[in-house]
Write a structure and sequence with these properties.
Blueprint (H helix, E strand, L loop, with lengths): L3 E5 L2 E6 L4 E6 L1 E3 L17 E4 L3 E3 L13 E4 L6 E2 L5 E3 L4 E4 L9 E3 L6 E2 L12 E3 L6 E2 L12 E4 L5 E2 L12 E4 L19 E2 L1
Parallel strand pairs: 3-5, 4-6, 5-7, 10-12, 11-13, 12-14, 14-16, 15-17, 17-18
Antiparallel strand pairs: 1-2, 2-3, 8-9, 9-10
Amino acid sequence: GSDASGTVNGVDWVYTSADKTLVLSGSGTLGEDVADFGLFGGSWVAEHVKIGADVNITTGRVFENFVFVDEYEVDANNKYLCNPDGVLMSKDKTVLIKYPAGSKEFSFYTVPDTVKTISYGAFEFSSALKTVFLNDGLETIDTFAFFNCNNLLYITVPGTVTSMGRGIFSQCRVLNKVTFEEGVTEVPAEAFDRCRTLETVV
């Protein structure tokens, strides 16, 4: 993408192609009402995303198809968000908004015990991950949460999960085993769409 900028819901965004950085500043909330691929023009090729103190993000869909980001940086004074291990989360760490899909730091990631919701597309295209350890206490796995995690081998969905969006494991091409713990009542539509190597669902 080339250099670009704009303003959405009071949030100013600037993408600089030279250092592949998207900076969000100003004051406002970006959520489902504006979330769309192309929200920040061609800046989905960004490798760095920096979020200012007064910017709130409420859904991972805001960064849909941001496949190269190695870390989400959040201003230390931000009242709404934090970034443990470069992962974008709500300040109280109950919502995991977006995992940095371009990060090669971890092949295994453990979701913190505080997390109740994994947001829309939160782990999409996170190609370094072989598994994600989901926490007991997790309640919601939103649509396309693990879409196209093309090295994800296995995952266990804890029994505390009561809500799952569609296509959560769609196009996880090497996914071999998915375990649904006792308590999970229904598997959502298209959960395993184009999962070519899936052998076991228990």
